[in-house]
Design goal:
Largest sheet: 8 strands, mixed
Number of helices: 12
Radius of gyration: 28 Å
Structural class: alpha+beta
Strand order of the largest sheet: 26-28-27-33-35-34-40-41
Length: 702
Amino acid sequence: MKRLYSFAIAVPCALLALVSCSVKEDVADVDNTLVQLPMVITIDPGNDPDTKHTYDFAGGRMRMHWEDGDAVYCSPAYRSGLGCAYRVPTGGAATNTFVADRQITSATTDHAYYYPASKVYNDASFMRFSYAGQVQRKSAPMAHMSEYHSMRQVLKYSGYNSNYDMANVSFAGSLKSGCMIFYLSGVTFVNPRKIMLQVLNGSTVLTNVLYEQNRLSSAYNDSDSGETVVWPSNVASLSLGLEGYGTETSLTAYMMHTCTDMALPAGCKLRVTVIGDKSYYADTVIPAATAIKGGYCSGLSVDSGWHELAGDYTEYSWDGDVVTLQNPGTNLDLVIMGDGFIKEDFDNGTYDQIMRQVYSEFFSVEPYATLKNDFNVFYVKTPSPQRTGATNTGANGATNSGNVTKFSVQFTANSTSLSGDNALAREYAKRAFSTNANERIKDATIVVVANQACRAGTCHNSWGSANGRDYGQASAVAYMALGRTQAERVQLIHHEVNGHGFGKLADEYSHSMTSFNYSWWTDLQNQHALGLFRNVDKYVTSRFNSSFGVSEPLTSNSEVLWYDMIGSVNHYESSSVESLGFYEGAKTYSMAFCRPTETASKSIMNANTGIFNAISRRQILYRYRRLKGEVTSNIFGTSQELNYFLQWDAANFLPKMSSMSTMSTVPPMLNADNYEPEALLPFAEPVNEEGVWVDGVFYKNQ
């Protein structure tokens, strides 16, 4: 094998003009065109054995040193079980030699990576490598970069049973690690603690542009872990922490980012926010579609056009503190937090009051009221830079204001849907768990309350595709507004949090249909096996057949999931109980699916009021028992599981059927007399994501 001492890498550097630009000596400003900024990797650990791929600028070049354990890894893009790695051997750094520990055995297109051995140990971990958590220290402003550096190129290999000649791996023109260099001035920054980068469309923070992990080809398969490729979830913002800074008239900061391009839509705004004792933001309009280039060094300069964020915001020492409301020590976790609450809301007790109201209202409906004492319930203090500040609030959501909030909760105008930073919400929720947080987060029910008095809510469920568990192991982040009245807030809690979030139940209302796809049935069948959406099932009538010309294999109602409850000792099918049956229209579809109860008031998953119907209670109870550990194997649908539910329901629920304490007593969602006569839209469908969990972090499938 040939000894390697260095190979040069040409790294274009784009300088993005934000508001106004100042020319830097190391990066010339040429009106947003790419500028060549060569980067040299020096494989010379013998001269500097204690420095790990340290960055520094010298004559317009960025240099880096390597140490023991660092590697270049090569893997086939479309083959599993093949690959090679060239690694600086432990104890042999001074030899400046790479050694091979795997070998390519077929001709194919390959990926090659450099990675720091302390954080990235193979190509799969490179793909999932996170650039979150960076902190730049004033005393050593480039030191953090070494921990977040990795790079990738795609190369061709031909020939069998021979090693790469590493002298020919130059990485020139490849996708390498990206770095955004901020040059910020024009205002006095007092104790700055964080720099944030966001993309906005009007006043809406886009949540589908930026991401914190690397990506690979969608055809990639990781033979070591047996997992197929997963794509990282988007984030609402990229951030870089700052430490040790005081009163600063200018800031130069280095934020490492993903190896893949992040497309910036034309007409949107790129926003830079500096958070400190006083917080400022500046925007610039993106005139034409462009991208933050993955693997390139980009410069972003701001020297005017700053706006102060309203309110006295800082990242308080108590940010993330956990308040325990009850904690019996089970695996039944409910974590509540807020978005758009500022320091004043914490000081005057508003935040505490709202968190406790949500806690109380979650347990105000059966079967949760009976099961309450076995839940762990916490709330997390999550102050925001600004209040939500949305406008056009009403029965069907609100319009975004563009304010900066903790979880970047976003409203969709003329809709009841909400979205936000799910990953950040899960990280804050994990603070509530003193032990086993990475496992408990997979089952946790998280509530994010947006500080806005309107009617909007959406639950986001994320589950591992191959978890093999039948009780609905899915982490829920349920976003909900405050509602315009207490009644609306209770509706939101019961439908979004109790129903979609913990119960893993589907919507039972329906809209008109114009198309049908067999995959919808396949998806539901697979979801049923994982313990999801058992309150709806596939269904066929002559109307469905005539509308879509579909020949359906369903032969009778006996194949519907809750058929085994019909004719039971509890007489659920009786009108005096709840008229359990098979009613066309569910899961938002007017045909092809059925629901268990016809009358809207007999199901919270239909009209947000009344009761959780029998199959919903059965699913909730089963999930409760599985998480509590009373049931340790997949037994849903067996006579053992059914008989337990029938006995429990007869003893705990049915005697209360006529009692208001049993049900959600707020008015129905639609056509209620005490609402203004505007058309009320149903609550938004849940957002469902399949993927994999790695060290407590969820990665969704593409």
